Here is the input.
Amino acid sequence: MADVPPFPNGPFGVIYADPPWGYTFKSPTGSKRPNYVNGAVDYYPTMKTEEVKCLNVAGLAAKDAVLFLWATVPMLPDAFDVMKAWGFTYKTMVVWHKLRCKGMGYWFRGHAELLLLGVRGHVKPFRSLLHNVQAVQVLRHSVKPDEFRRIIEGVTPEMRRIELFARQAVRDWAVWGLEAPKHEEAEKV
Here is the structure.
């Protein structure tokens, strides 16, 4: 990914990330074109897993921090590798059951996306009564519903937060990414 902007000044107790996963897969139809690139490249620049892993998120995070990392089902092993490379230990996940979704996939039609939760340092469990399956309507391609940001705010009320690969400014959040507003614009929200 070219021209990656610098991170804002940390540290942050909450890292919320939706990496622009880039992956290829083989056609199950036996097509002469052996590798197809996922449809994300039609919407935004994607990154290879190794590029995502090399981001210095560990340097951005507080000593005691929580990572909320989005993963598509085919990218789940890569997401666990990214979490580890960033210095976090996997604890659990929230499943987004996508309502009003056609779904893609060769094995099953995908109607779920996974929000992995990892920690580093000493973070107490949230003891939340929320279910780990959230049924929420799909928005535009790759846009995550605000409900998930509200869930994160609810379980991390006193922590400084940043959204990586953000597309918009959000009150009380720092944002970073190619599509994120500049720092001065984000502070106006």
